[in-house]
Structure formats: C-alpha cells, structure tokens
Design brief:
single chain, 11 helices, 2 domains, 16 strands, Rossmann fold, alpha/beta, 5-stranded parallel β-sheet
C-alpha cells in the first residue's frame, strides 16, 4: 500500500482527519470530485473579496478545544452574525429580540414586549382547543404569535423547505429563540468569527503537505484508488457509496446567483439579509465583503434560492423525516459492517452539521482510530 489512508472529500471532516493522521505519521491521499479543496466552505477571491461560493459560512462554537484548533492554523476575525429580515421593504433585526419587537409593535420595554407576545400566544393556544401543536405553523403561533409568524417565519420557511408550514413537523421550530434584550447576535456561542483570508486558506493549512488529487471522482476509479491505501475515510453521500441499493436519500438543495457590482462599495450594509415575503423568489442576499469588514471599491452579492433536490443536484440539507430516517438506518447498518471504511461528515452521516460540530466529530473519530 502506498498510503495509510485514502480520504474521499476535502471538506472539514476530510481536512481535519488528514491533519491529525499526518501528525501521527500516517500518509494520506485526499481526493475530491470538485476542482478545488474545501467542499462547501470553499471561498474564492473576486476583486480582493473572499466569496463564500456555496453560501454563507459563519464559524461559531463554545468548544474551546475546537476554537483553539482552528485558530492554530489561521487567525479569525471578530465577525458577529447579525442578520436583517426584509419583509416587503420593512426591516427587522434577527434573531427575535427587543429591536425586533420595537420594529414590529413600537414597544420599548421588556414588559411591554412580553405582554404583546403573551396576548398573541393566548389567541393561538385558544385556537388549539387544548391539544398540542401538530405542525410548524401551530407551534410557531404558540411561541411568538401571529404578527411575527406572518412577517418573519411563514413565507421564509415555506420558500426554504418547499412545503407549507402546516405540512412541516412542529419540532423544527420548537426552540425558537425569543430574547427580551437589545441583542442582534444570532448565535449564543462563546466564540465566533471568520478566518482572515477565507476558509480555503484554513483548509489548505489543515491539509498541509498531504497529496491531493482534484477533479477526481471516487466511483469512476474506485478499485484503483482503494488499492492505494490501507483504509478509506469516506465523506460523500452514504447512499451513493452503496449505489442507492435501498433508494435515494432526500435533501433540500440551494443555488446561487452571484454578481460583481463594479463601482458599488456597499450594497445592503450587512452580510446577510433574509427576504421573508412570498413574492421574492430567493431566500436571502449575501454581501460577502462584510464578513471580513472589506472596504474594496466594488462588492459581490449572492442571491440564494432553495429548491427540491433531484438526483445530480448538490445535496445540502438532509430531510430528516420518518421515511428518510428509516432509509438512512438501513445504509448505516451496512456501513457498520465495513472494516476498512470510515464514514464521517454531513453526507456520510446524513446529518445537518454546523462547521464546529464536523470538526469535533472528526477529532473524536481520529482519537478512536
């Protein structure tokens, strides 16, 4: 064997694995079907701006071990995610906090906001007639009431999932954050930021001197590639690995319209603006320069469109309903019988992972092996 490990995929799970294994003297070969490293966290430079090619990625964690780990490769800035919602031209701060409630109702104190929310929640609870919420709409109405639901949740959620809120399970929104303070920080984690120079720089540093082969489809050369290494770390779709033996797992997918606005130094004044009305076809606009406090004379924006996944589309968000959970369990049972293949990451585990959780998972897996 020429290598100890063949690592399929150069996203965070693959890159972290490569680094930790190399530190133990293991020789790794990484491959990726894309023409670049980094998976969905890949950033490309346009006019001096690091563009998040596959959508906004904001690093946040309360795990000091993970935070210290990523900062050992590159320095992170102090970016704090404070998205804005645009509903038919009205602007609201997110997540739901005193700024949102003032913008929605003109209330100025926590007591006034609490009273208004309680009034609207009472109407929703009364409508249920004593039964538990059966879907996302009923759940949201009992948490924040009609006004916030109608303007900031309903249409955005339906665009994102391609389903009516009455058709989505209640658990999706069960922990809806409501803050009675003037705080627009979206995340509660202790550490937050963006790697200076972009995520590609971070992944490059993790991979280090390991050999990388890009534009290489694992399944087109599987026998040849498997023969090069003692073990395989696989980070792609688990159903693809087993040639869809039990059928396709489902995802939501995302597409982007990215545009360079020459001569426009500041398009929307914020990195992330959500469009929460039904008439706007995209879910949000990302202005990439604001992730790194850029002052370039031009700007780059990306409009984000959510749609139903079809075979051949890039898989983004697992649809963890009963049907897909049962299907994944069948594939997981097959994976558990593999002696020389390790399955890890968002696609291989059919699980929505924040970036820090992928890194944490890879660190845990490497400690085990």
């Amino acid at each position: 064997m020429k290598y100890d490990y063949l690592i399929v995929g150069t996203g965070f799970f693959g890159a972290v694995s490569a680094y930790l294994l190399s530190q133990k003297g293991k020789k790794c070969l990484l491959i990726d079907k894309r023409p670049h490293i980094g998976g969905n966290v890949y950033t490309e430079e346009i006019k001096g701006i690091n563009v998040h090619k596959y959508g906004a990625h904001i690093f946040h964690t309360s795990n000091k071990k993970v935070w210290d780990f990523v900062n050992s490769f590159v320095e992170f800035n102090r970016y704090t995610n404070c998205p804005v919602a645009n509903y038919k031209g009205e602007l609201f701060n997110l997540p739901f906090n005193m700024n949102t409630f003032y913008q929605m109702w003109g209330v100025k104190t926590p007591a006034e906001a609490e009273a208004k929310i309680a009034e609207q929640k009472a109407e929703a609870v009364k409508a249920l007639g004593g039964r538990e919420p059966q879907n996302l709409e009923e759940q949201a109405l009992t948490l924040v009431g009609k006004d916030i639901f109608e303007k900031l949740i309903k249409n955005y959620t339906e665009k994102q999932w391609g389903r009516k809120c009455t058709e989505l399970p209640a658990f999706i929104i069960k922990r809806l954050p409501v803050r009675l303070i003037f705080d627009n920080n979206y995340f509660n984690d202790k550490y937050q930021g963006i790697p200076e120079g972009g995520y590609t720089k971070l992944v490059e540093a993790m991979i280090g001197d390991c050999e990388v082969r890009l534009s290489t489809d694992y399944f087109e050369h599987k026998a040849e590639l498997d023969a090069l290494a003692d073990k395989v770390i696989y980070t792609g779709e688990i159903d693809r690995y087993y040639d869809y033996r039990y059928g396709h797992l489902q995802y939501r997918t995302v597409s982007f319209e990215t545009e360079l606005l020459a001569g426009v130094s500041n398009y929307q004044g914020n990195a992330v603006v959500n469009y929460t009305d039904a008439d706007t076809p995209f879910t949000r606009i990302i202005e990439h320069k604001h992730f790194e406090f850029g002052n370039q004379p031009d700007t780059v924006i990306s409009k984000e469109f959510s749609k139903e996944w079809q075979p051949g589309d890039e898989p983004y968000y697992p649809v963890n309903d009963d049907r897909n959970s049962e299907l994944y369990a069948k594939y997981k049972a097959l994976a558990d019988t593999e002696k020389n293949v390790i399955f890890g990451g968002r696609l291989a585990e059919y699980k929505y992972y924040d970036m820090h959780k992928v890194i944490e998972s890879a660190m845990d897996m490497m400690e085990k092996i």
